[in-house]
Design brief:
The structure is a homodimer.
Chain A (H helix, E strand, L loop, with lengths): L3 E6 L3 H12 L1 H8 L3 E7 L14 E3 L2 H4 L7 E4 L7 H10 L3 E4 L2 H17 L4 E2 L10 H8 L5 E7 L2 H13 L3 H10 L8 H4 L2 H15 L9 E2 L7 H9 L2 E11 L4 E11 L11 E8 L3 E8 L3 H24 L24 E10 L2 H14 L4 E6 L7 E7 L2 E2 H12 L4 E10 L5
Parallel strand pairs in A: 1-2, 1-4, 2-3, 4-5, 5-6, 8-10
Antiparallel strand pairs in A: 7-9, 7-11, 9-10, 11-12, 13-15, 13-16, 13-17, 14-15
Helix pairs in contact in A: 1-12, 4-5, 5-10, 7-8
Keywords (chains A, B): Amino-acid biosynthesis, Methionine biosynthesis, NADP, Oxidoreductase, Threonine biosynthesis
Pathway (chains A, B): Amino-acid biosynthesis; L-threonine biosynthesis; L-threonine from L-aspartate: step 3/5; Amino-acid biosynthesis; L-methionine biosynthesis via de novo pathway; L-homoserine from L-aspartate: step 3/3
EC number (chains A, B): 1.1.1.3
């Protein structure tokens, strides 16, 4: 079977991330699709010998020439900017190539024309990476929620803005002060206008609204207000009232028409959206059948953006397979080839443990219990002695991760201590860290 | 163009929800797909004249006969239970029908055989509704995250269990007491074993893990522990330590093999997953490119489950269109036909407002300001007077939703008051309610 051949245009953060991801996860992706993905061209303004690309990948600065080549099935545009991306994509579509792009500004401002050209040439532009980075929100709205009439969407879709507002709230800092830090950390550009004045969020909202309501892209009609006038004073007052200020993109269907707006917004602090902190993104979608659903994750960065770009590529690969082989579009259990990786017995599983004992005399017990744990090499994360209850003293111990078989042995030993009454309670702990 | 023809088997909560949704959202779904969806058969053990189904829908109790009919393209199995669902689906697949099911128990326990039969007959079983109800988690894992190597999944995938644990924590109630209420509310079955002993969650985890790691379904290897032994005492101790107890389904890849486990788990209270309350579900997925992403929504109920079932149907309709017409699988902007719904000017948008004034003499000002608001018919949700700052008294007012044009007029009037100094701050409020 022929591999699916890509031209990757742009080798910045995102382009580099796509190259790295296709290489790093090649085996897993092949197991999912059953087909090779091959990079035939890389388009960059300047040659990049420093990248040590395999000799099989041709490098060229002539992007228009690349997209005409016969050994290119999919053009991956990850340069950003309106020009020459517009011209290059147009040319690619006219030559019957599928296009994958992460370019929100281009789509929000010129998507209507580009989608028309794609339709005319019976190809598609896909753009999962253009909105909310690695969160597959375009797929969710176009497909996952397709049975619903979507009523409104409210999203934290600019990570820089959310980082600034989070710092302002958590540390009582001023806007200008946090912005400077965000620039030093690389979260914000030297010219932060796109992020802090809401233009980037308005680009993304334009795209989300079109997918949610089936309307043309209308970036020029988005009401856009940034966060640069938000003061620490208002953040603090809002908090006293039980609210948090978030910079939201909101698209809402009303009986009069559609509201498209980007602005700082007070939302109740108990909402999940109010608890999305730092550079993370999240999109809350209200639909008429499923009700509210929320999608959370990294909205920017090389890995997350590449995750979305490559997901689009995999969709195209699966469509090609469907066309050529007539096999089902997506493998029923997600992978073409299932693995026989063993499933572990519970005794082999590793987690932290919360342990509660009821002890007669806590001083002696604590020494005995901690000695047993330490002899077994089990780290203690916290110990808490509780007020006496029915003549016994409850002791709670939280351990570091340990394999269950070892914990079973240790608990049997502790249970056997004469000062321990009743059955020891144990509940597993997960820190949910990466 | 021929409509796509469905047989719906089962007319309980889910079946009824599917019928209602297909009817209620027919126009929006047609706008998305460009193709009619027609129900040709409804299969129920007993005829249901009370439903007043259109005469064009044939009713029959002979399910095996229905799935053989030529005027059925897709069989929607929403009966639940292992038998006769297994036999009926098998027969449908052998007759070349696409199958959509919400049946987690059947798939977790017999999916390997059924998927094999589907493959052999070049059709598919789709099952978005089988896991986490209306959250499109199967699509996310099979497609949206397909570029990633998934490392682990941790999900709240049983709403009943989460409702019980939420009530225990928020109100200090005992397990048995809350379970009784859950049964009265219809959240828990008369026999709650499947929910509270973790079997339902284990069924769902089995399916999630197979999609995430590409392994056969292995329900019998899931370590399963319910919540029936969790006490209010442990819930409270965990909280004192900064943790919440959630009933999680966890699937994790380790170097030794795969962990599949369902058990009560202490997780840090600042995690979004710890703040998923009541009957809601949420799934946290850790992947190697995108990092952590989280998906939240309703895990059960007629509407949410129907949302997932009908999303699967729309996928099939789109595949049929692709096969017949060669048009792109999914419309680029989600809809085949875009609407010219007007986008509103910001002056026409309705939101609540947070207003901050700096006043010289608050007593007089409050009367003046509230009079202006009340004359305009704007409701006040909260007023907060803040400590004097630089000789002025900050006053914060939160209003009920009001159209911007009216708020503009009112603020101009307030701004003109001689006691008000500096520019009035206004920030929009959204309660994010349905």
């Amino acid at each position: 079977m022929k591999p699916v051949r890509l031209a990757i245009l742009g080798l910045g953060t995102v382009g580099g991330g796509v190259l790295k991801l296709l290489q790093e996860n090649a085996a897993e992706i092949r197991r999912r699709t059953g087909r090779e993905i091959e990079i035939t061209y890389v388009g960059t303004r300047r040659p990049r010998p420093d990248l040590n690309l395999p000799a099989s990948i041709k490098q060229s600065a002539d992007l228009i020439d690349i997209v005409k080549q016969a050994d290119v099935d999919v053009v991956v545009e990850v340069m950003g900017g309106i020009h020459p991306a517009y011209e290059v994509i147009t040319e690619a579509l006219k030559h019957g190539k599928q296009v994958v792009t992460a370019n929100k500004a281009l789509l929000a401002e010129h998507g209507n024309e580009l989608f028309k050209i794609a339709d005319d040439h019976n190809v598609q532009i896909t753009y999962e990476a253009a909105v909310a980075g690695g969160i597959p929100i375009i797929k969710v709205i176009r497909e996952g929620l397709a049975a619903n009439k979507i009523e409104w969407i409210a999203g934290i879709i600019n990570g820089t803005g959310n980082f600034i507002l989070t710092e302002m709230r958590e540390k009582g800092r001023a806007f200008a002060d946090v912005l400077k830090e965000a620039q030093q950390l690389g979260y914000a550009e030297a010219d932060p206008t796109f992020d802090v004045e809401g233009i980037d969020a308005a680009h993304k909202l334009t795209i989300l609204a079109s997918c949610a309501f089936g309307i043309p892209l209308q970036f020029d009609k988005v009401y856009t207000e940034g966060i640069s006038k938000i003061t620490a004073q208002d953040v603090s007052y809002a908090e006293n009232l039980g609210y948090r200020i978030k910079h939201l993109g909101i698209a809402r269907r009303t009986h009069k028409g559609i509201e498209l707006r980007v602005h700082p917004t007070l939302i109740p602090e108990e909402e999940l959206l109010a608890n999305v902190n730092g550079v993370k993104n999240a999109v809350l979608v209200q639909s008429n059948a499923v009700g509210p659903t929320l999608y959370y994750g990294a909205g920017a960065g090389a890995g997350p953006t590449a995750s979305a770009v490559v997901a689009d590529i995999i969709d195209i690969v699966r469509d090609i397979i469907y066309t050529e082989d007539g096999a089902g579009t997506i493998p029923q259990l997600a992978f073409e080839a299932l693995a026989d990786t063993p499933v572990l017995d519970s005794t082999e599983m590793t987690t932290g443990y919360y342990i509660r004992l009821n002890a007669e005399d806590q001083t002696g017990v604590l020494a005995n219990v901690t000695t047993i744990l330490s002899r077994a090499g089990i780290g203690i994360d916290a110990i808490m002695q509780q007020p006496r209850l029915k003549d016994l003293i409850p002791i709670v111990i939280m351990t570091d991760p340990v394999v269950e078989s070892k914990m079973n042995d240790v608990l049997a030993e502790i249970q056997a201590l004469s000062e321990i009454h009743g059955e020891i309670v144990r509940i597993r702990i997960e820190l949910l860290e990466n």
